[in-house]
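Entry type: protein chain
Record version: 2
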Amino acid sequence: QLWFRQHLFERKAALTLGFLDFQTIVDRNAYANSEDKQFWNQALDNNPLVPLAIGLGVWLEVKPVKWYSLQLGVADAQSVLYKPGFSTAFHDQAWFMGYVENDFRVTLPSSRGPLPGNYRVGVVYDPRPRAKFSYSELDRRPHGDDYGAFVSVDQMVFRERSEDEQGLGVFGRFGYRTPATNRIARFWSAGVSYTGLIPLRDRDVLGLGVAFERSSRLYRSRVDDELDNETAYELYYAIRIAEWLVITPDVQYIDNPGAHGDVGRTIVAGVRTRVSF
């Protein structure tokens, strides 16, 4: 990333422009938003129905009060990874993603300290052309101006003590895209994250999540009647060996991978090592 940020109105607003990764701006989640620290499955890192551009863009954050902020973003819809983006953002078609997200910060009281939470509700505009299908016919002419809605929630629900972050958190996501122009029309995910579950392992993290993608009935009717739904389950345990070293065993069980029925189910297991310096 490479960007310039200007704070405005006594830091109640901030304007950022440059080469941005919108994964760090919209659809964020405290317990399911990092492929190198949390879940491996992409459907648990972010909402697959929210196209998170990486490229040239502009982001405006307005925070009138401590518990609410508004995120407004515009990004190059034709950006290509590892390229600066000037050849796509300012040439040929003027296609730009649009994001509007409302962020609410909620802190629940408890006898062992505050329980922080975040509730995000937004819409996305996607101009990229695609075929349109209905019950009567399949229109292969490119149609743009597609919209979607999404929700992302994370909430700490139990705290072991007030002086550290040990405890249980829950998360959930929901996404919707137009069934007439998208292969996957609905999505949801949910899970839990516990920091310090095992005694004397206060900074280890256990995560368990499930993600479900529901295919469009219109797509199945007009394009591929064998398309079905996909469900993914994932369990990981991040072991903090030192401040700079974390080892994470991980296992996934995927029911109907690819949502096409070619493979009924699969198990994926691995170990991730993260070295920070």
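Comment: Residues 217-222 form the longest helix (6 residues).
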